[in-house]
Amino acid sequence: MGTSIHTYALRFESRDDFLVEYTDRLRHGLVLLPVADRFATGSPVRLRVHLPDESVLYLTGVATTSPRGGGADAGQWVRLAPLSASDEARMRGCVAALLGTDELSDHDAVRAASPSLEQAEGLSVLLVDDSVSQRLELGDALRGRGARVRVAENGLVALSSALKRMPDLILTDVEMPHMDGWGLLRAVRQRPAFVHVAVVFLTRLADDATRLRGYRLGVDDYLPKAMPADEILARAQGAVARRRQLPAGHGSHGLRGELEHVRLGSVLSFLESERRSGSLHVRCSGELTTLAVHQGALASVEGLGRHVHPHDRVFEMLGWCHGEFEFLAHETQPGEGTPLSYLLLEQARRADEFEAHVAETRHERPTGEAKAAR
């Protein structure tokens, strides 16, 4: 009498459910079938796996025991036979395509928007880093300060964890295998239900172009890895507080960041090169100035401070090293239409003249003192 082959079809309620299943089990060659009666270990199993891109994989495997031991899982574990190169490519291609989508199903929106019973007990942090020592040391330090910390070794595992239980904050490294911090940031910001989840990069990245790229994608802050845990937690709480103030429909089309991370000149250069239109709000030491930008040119300035001419206010702002900026895209009127590149070049020319004047003054001072002595 031949051995019976158990045959099942495997479907997913949503695309994100597939991402979770892939991250937790499929990529490790495992499947957990939701069946009441378990098979004898080693029994052959056939699976028809329906991928979210509507393709179908026909896989084989054998019944196995729980990889965690104890056999307490509700269902039957299956150890899959090694995937063929084509099946592996199709599954990875499906995952890659889903990570680039901007859709979130109703099922996931309801699940992700459901408040956690633990939210009031402390900050929920998802710490993502491929370094075991970093996960242990920083994770323990944050837990010792009242945060509830989960860890993940790369962006893909982190996304799966966040889909199952939404954190308040994702604190992530940038350079990681499988999915780096950039990929994780894009995946989070493409999901509307995650609008109030703050994402903070722990990184050594320091150049304006790279940091501006992060702000364009929706990162909330940059922190150096060497920063003490107390400061990391304080900055993280600030990022979470700002995120919670955003309206539910807020998208990732704005641009916001800190002037200590990205100079205002770099922001203006980006707005001109992209021919953006909208309002650039800049705050520094209690002052708020708004630059209206039309197709990459300065249209008007609100909040001139002590200056009469708007250009003089811009020149002053270009020297600010602290504060925050936020650009909101919307339709604007042309206004005066001053090219932003002109303002940047003029500010650089004035700075050079000032430095030359200071150097000349220093050179002449000893002669004046000598005459006074005689």
Give the topology, please.
Layout: E1 6-10, H1 15-24, E2 30-33, E3 44-50, E4 56-64, E5 76-80, H2 85-99, H3 106-113, E6 124-128, H4 132-143, E7 148-152, H5 155-164, E8 169-172, H6 181-189, E9 198-202, H7 208-217, E10 221-223, H8 229-244, E11 255-258, H9 264-273, E12 278-284, E13 287-294, E14 297-302, H10 310-317, E15 324-329, E16 338-339, H11 340-373
Parallel strand pairs: 1-3, 6-7, 6-8, 8-9, 9-10
Antiparallel strand pairs: 2-5, 3-4, 4-5, 11-15, 12-13, 12-15, 13-14, 14-16
Helix pairs in contact: 1-5, 5-6
Q: Care to describe what's here?
A:
It is built from 11 helices and 16 strands. The chain is α/β, with parallel strands linked by helices. The protein has 3 domains: 6-99, no CATH class; 121-252, Rossmann fold; 264-354, no CATH class. The protein has a 6-stranded antiparallel beta sheet with strand order 11-15-12-13-14-16. Strands 1-3-4-5-2 form a 5-stranded mixed beta sheet, with no helix packed on it. It has a 5-stranded parallel beta sheet with strand order 7-6-8-9-10, with helices on both faces. The chain is elongated, with a radius of gyration of 28 Å. The relative contact order is 0.07.
